[in-house]
Write a structure and sequence with these properties.
This protein is mainly beta. The chain has one helix spanning 39-42, and strands spanning 17-22, 30-37. A two-stranded antiparallel sheet has the order 1-2. Strand 1 and strand 2 form a beta hairpin.
Length: 54
């Protein structure tokens, strides 16, 4: 387990999303749930075929 000061070793890209969580909802087992995901990884940027505009 690393101290918080060592966090600078894990670079995060600009415009990305990273989520830190816990393994199997166990607070004693930290885990990386999502790392450096960009918008294309999270959702489609183009409308779905047949989708109506509001």
């Amino acid at each position: 387990e690393l101290p918080m000061e060592m966090g600078y070793h894990f670079g995060l890209d600009t415009g990305s999303l990273s989520i830190l969580g816990h393994e199997h909802n166990n607070v004693d087992a930290p885990a990386i749930s999502l790392w450096n995901a960009v918008s294309n990884d999270l959702f489609a940027l183009t409308p779905r075929a047949g989708a109506s505009r509001a």
